[in-house]
Design goal:
Length: 98
């Protein structure tokens, strides 16, 4: 698997989920994007690295989503999402393709 696919997906899922929620005004729509990308990431990582690695990557992804909320109070919404999307790429690179 290309080493960049999973980190790009995790970052795109966070950015896209927030963007959809913001643009549509429907938080559940953004959650749908976040969930669909998280499921895809799990499948991709599990194929190559097994379910434990896949779970770790998805937990980092969901943890970043959770961390973006309090961080937004300090940085603002979009800067917060960009920060956690960048941070989520690190465990995705380290765990996804080993």
């Amino acid at each position: 698997m290309n080493r960049l696919i999973v980190p790009l997906l995790t970052s795109a899922g966070l950015l896209g989920g927030f963007g959809v929620a913001r643009a549509s005004g429907v938080r559940a729509a953004g959650g749908g994007v976040l969930g669909a990308v998280g499921a895809a990431v799990f499948v991709l990582v599990a194929r190559r690295g097994g379910p434990l690695r896949a779970t770790a990557v998805v937990l980092a992804y969901l943890g970043a989503f959770g961390a973006s909320h309090p961080l937004a109070k300090r940085l603002g919404a979009w800067p917060s999402v960009f920060a956690v999307a960048t941070a989520t790429a690190v465990p995705a690179v380290l765990l996804a393709d080993r």
